[in-house]
């Protein structure tokens, strides 16, 4: 994706460098990704601390590399190693890869870049960034609550990694032995037993060790019916250790967490590649890898697979949690976040695929060793897959398996640190932005202590079921809705045009058709469509074979209600506190104030205002010219049909083909398929129309147009 230099705006004179100004404004100089509007951003440096900086004391990264590595450590975390393999396992292996990659391209990547841009442009966290659309500040608070909930169970996985790391220093790895108090007659050891004649009902020693000795988990028939039980003291100490390390990582803000990222971002790849090489050499590994990459086409019609793909994309990239916006807010104004977004999204996908290939190679070996008919029957699904399959593989290492096991679980823990630091930092930033006089170190310690106390519920015998419940409603459902609201409000209310102008001013590059199409249409429509389909076909929530009911289900829905309640409260509060008539209040709810939105430096803000005025008339003429000449390619009126109709425009022909293909798929099963699609086709237009009504009603001169529409012209009626 090459970028072509055109002109520079931020902190520079508005010149066109010899280019045609019309081409700069109308988007003709585009490669589909960016229309270039500026020189290469300046080297990474501190924001000038002039007398009008307006907040230049905000902490910043020590250097460019620390920001990039911190983002990689945040996005490439336990979501890739711990969560991605078992989500793929539960959704058909290769059948999950296609939706995941599509979702990553259409939803994940555009949202990641959007959050980076908004955070860097405003220098605000996930709440104060909503100065762009004041009534939607509740979305930021909802993200803060969801992020805090997720980080409490995220660190419990880190605590489990610490426990395994300590056990690696035993003379014999404890999960390789049967005949222990935590095993039963169905136990077999992947390290020592002959597996060729095993029954598929048997369980590996690593699986029984994880469930019975580490978690001491209640069986699925009991679940949460008798409560969660008391915290397991060893896991409690491991959880406490993890939180202490997180506090030390955050005590000095981004200056300390940035330095730690050198290790947390790079070390995991050394271990993963080692495990991949070892796993690929095991007998039967190829069959497992084929299961991972071979799609089951019938699964693509299941809404839950697409919902799982979006959830995994959010969890892996950390999109929708607010942490991306928070990290970008500590950047200099002209830092090249476009390049960083590409690098991070590629690295995240690469890591997920690397982890998936590694773990499915191991599952293929287990299937071959057990003589099982299918990989589906080799091991139980769930978050413990990484604590069962990986230890089985390590147990088969010929030399010093203890060393490789220790390195592996240290890697898992470091992955968790990178993501947990970002998640809790998001909450800390929201609090410190709201109360700037509070000592950040005290806020950090208090929030981490509260999170640790809440996290004790996950190290109880019923903890895995609570984790599944919270992950379903807070990690999936809640973040999904908040990300949808964030996309709609930023791209439709604040406006894609404004976002593109802000990007052009900040980076000197104008987003091309891919970004604009995703932001305005594909991303919000895809999110809404998948959400509606998943809601219609939603089954009873369950985890580890236990179906939630009663009080547990009520608590889960209360968590999910935060996604709706917080924005609603924010809308009502903003409307009530504004002054004026209905139209004026609505305008103040959805339109930003010049004093509260824009670049943080007052000098830069004035240049931004001048830049918008300079390009406003160009954008208006561009829309008319692009529609008539570039899109429709209409003949001049003097030519008309004298020379025939001409050849079909290939892009419109492809769009027409896509439309007819969609209609065919809607009708292929008669009313059964078209009926389900009607949920979306009947409801979605109202969402867009209401959004356009609110936005249009607040525009200057809108009342004149409305009066012209409703006021009858009696003279014209008589003339007919």
From TrEMBL:
Family, similarity comment: Belongs to the sodium:neurotransmitter symporter (SNF) (TC 2.A.22) family.
Pfam families tied to this protein: SNF
Signal peptide extent: none
GO CC field: plasma membrane
NCBIfam families (alphabetical): Na_transp
GO biological process, one term: amino acid import across plasma membrane
Bilayer-crossing regions: 67-85, 97-118, 139-166, 233-254, 266-293, 305-330, 342-363, 403-430, 442-460, 472-496, 517-536, 556-576, 652-671, 683-710
Descriptive protein name: Transporter
């Amino acid at each position: 994706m090459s970028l072509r230099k055109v002109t520079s705006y931020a902190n520079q004179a508005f010149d066109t460098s010899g280019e045609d100004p019309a081409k700069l404004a109308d988007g003709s100089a585009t490669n589909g990704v960016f229309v270039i509007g500026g020189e290469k951003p300046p080297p990474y440096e501190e924001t000038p601390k002039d007398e009008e900086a307006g907040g230049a004391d905000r902490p910043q990264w020590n250097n460019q590399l620390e920001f990039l590595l911190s983002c990689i450590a945040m996005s490439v975390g336990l979501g890739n190693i711990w969560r991605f393999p078992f989500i793929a396992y539960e959704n058909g292996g290769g059948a999950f890869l296609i939706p995941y990659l599509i979702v990553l391209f259409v939803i994940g990547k555009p949202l990641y870049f959007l959050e980076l841009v908004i955070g860097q442009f405003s220098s605000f966290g996930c709440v104060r960034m909503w100065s762009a659309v004041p009534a939607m500040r509740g979305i930021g608070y909802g993200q803060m609550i969801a992020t805090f909930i997720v980080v409490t169970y995220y660190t419990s996985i880190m605590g489990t990694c610490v426990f395994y790391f300590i056990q690696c220093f035993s003379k014999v790895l404890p999960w390789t032995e049967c005949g222990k108090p935590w095993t039963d007659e169905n136990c077999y050891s992947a390290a020592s037993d002959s597996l060729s004649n095993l029954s598929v009902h048997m369980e590996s020693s690593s699986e029984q060790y994880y469930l019975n000795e580490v978690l001491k988990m209640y069986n699925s028939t009991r679940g949460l019916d008798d409560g969660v039980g008391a915290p397991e003291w060893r896991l409690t100490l491991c959880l406490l250790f993890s939180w202490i390390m997180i506090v030390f990582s955050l005590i000095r803000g981004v200056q300390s967490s940035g330095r730690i990222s050198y290790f947390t971002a790079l070390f995991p790849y050394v271990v993963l590649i080692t495990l991949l090489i070892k796993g690929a050499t095991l007998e039967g590994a190829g069959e497992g890898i084929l299961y991972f990459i071979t799609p089951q086409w019938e699964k693509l019609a299941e809404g839950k697979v697409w919902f799982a793909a979006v959830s995994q994309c959010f969890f892996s990239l950390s999109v929708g949690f607010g942490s991306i916006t928070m990290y970008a807010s500590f950047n200099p104004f002209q830092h090249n976040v476009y390049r960083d977004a590409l690098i991070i999204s590629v690295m995240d996908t690469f890591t997920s695929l690397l982890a998936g290939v590694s773990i499915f190679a191991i599952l293929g070996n287990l299937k071959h060793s057990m003589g099982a008919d299918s990989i589906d029957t080799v091991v139980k699904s769930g978050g413990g897959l990484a604590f069962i399959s990986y230890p089985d593989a390590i147990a088969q290492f010929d030399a010093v398996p203890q060393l490789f096991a220790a390195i592996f679980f240290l890697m898992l823990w470091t992955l968790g640190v990178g993501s947990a630091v970002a998640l809790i930092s998001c909450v800390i930033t929201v609090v410190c932005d709201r109360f700037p006089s509070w000592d950040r170190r005290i806020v950090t310690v208090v929030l981490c202590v509260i999170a640790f106390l809440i996290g004790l519920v996950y190290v109880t015998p019923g903890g895995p079921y609570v984790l599944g419940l919270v992950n379903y409603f807070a990690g999936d459902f809640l973040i999904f809705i908040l990300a949808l609201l964030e996309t709609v409000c930023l791209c439709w209310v604040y406006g894609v045009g404004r976002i593109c102008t802000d990007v052009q001013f900040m980076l000197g590059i104008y987003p091309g058709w891919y970004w604009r199409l995703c932001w305005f249409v594909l991303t919000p429509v895809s999110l809404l469509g998948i959400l509606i389909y998943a809601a219609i076909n939603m089954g009873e929530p369950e985890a580890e074979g236990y179906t939630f009911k009663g009080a547990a289900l009520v608590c889960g829905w209360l968590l999910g209600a935060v996604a709706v309640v917080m924005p609603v409260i924010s809308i009502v509060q903003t409307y009530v506190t504004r002054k004026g008539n209905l139209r004026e209040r609505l305008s103040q709810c959805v339109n930003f104030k010049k004093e509260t939105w824009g670049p943080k430096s007052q000098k830069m803000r004035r240049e931004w205002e001048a830049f918008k005025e300079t390009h406003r008339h160009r954008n208006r003429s561009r829309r008319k010219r692009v529609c008539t000449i570039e899109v429709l390619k209409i003949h001049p009126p003097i030519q008309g049909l004298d020379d025939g109709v001409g050849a079909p425009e290939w892009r419109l022909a492809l769009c027409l083909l896509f439309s007819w293909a969609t209609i065919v798929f809607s009708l292929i099963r008669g009313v059964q398929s078209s009926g389900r699609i009607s949920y979306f086709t009947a409801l979605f237009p109202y969402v867009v129309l209401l959004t356009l009504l609110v936005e249009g009603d607040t525009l200057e001169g809108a009342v004149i147009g409305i009066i012209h529409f409703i006021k009858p012209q009696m003279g014209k009626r008589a003339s007919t």
